[in-house]
């Protein structure tokens, strides 16, 4: 179980949704952005977002809005 102090990276492609969890700090946010960038280099991304697990507040997004 993921604790509530996490950033969640959610990447949607045409075939799947990739979800990763990172510590909710500057380093975790940077790692999430780097992962999103790496995935964009090898896959066609429909959308991506980083949000806080406890508040669902979106910290970064790319593409269409995911609710």
Description:
With 67 residues, this protein is α+β, with helices and mostly antiparallel strands. Helices cover 25% and strands 43% of the residues. It has 1 helix and 4 strands. The protein has one helix at residues 26-42; strands at 6-13, 17-23, 45-52, 58-63. It has a 4-stranded antiparallel sheet with strand order 2-1-3-4, with helices on one face. Strand 1 and strand 2 (17-23) form a beta hairpin. It is globular. The protein starts with 5 loop residues before the first strand and ends with a strand. The model has no long low-confidence stretch (mean pLDDT 89).
Features:
globular; 1 helix; alpha+beta; four-stranded antiparallel beta sheet; 4 strands; 67 residues
Q: Would you tell me the structural class of the helices and strands?
A: alpha+beta
Measured between the Cα atoms of the first and last residue, the distance is 22 Å
The helix content, as a percent range, equals: 25-40%
Discrete helix count: 1
Shape: globular
Mean pLDDT across every amino acid position: 89
Neighbour order of strands in the largest sheet: 2-1-3-4
Topology as H/E string? EEHEE
The Rg value, from CA coordinates, equals 11 Å
Summarize the structure.
This protein is an alpha+beta fold and 67 residues long.
Spell out the blueprint of helices and strands.
Blueprint: E1 6-13, E2 17-23, H1 26-42, E3 45-52, E4 58-63
Antiparallel strand pairs: 1-2, 1-3, 3-4
């Amino acid at each position: 179980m993921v604790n509530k102090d996490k950033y969640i990276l959610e990447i949607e492609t045409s075939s799947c949704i990739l979800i990763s969890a990172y510590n909710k700090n500057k380093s975790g946010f940077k790692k999430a952005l780097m992962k999103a960038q790496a995935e964009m280099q090898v896959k066609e991304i429909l959308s991506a977002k980083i949000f806080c697990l406890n508040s669902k507040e979106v910290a970064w997004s790319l593409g269409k809005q995911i609710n």
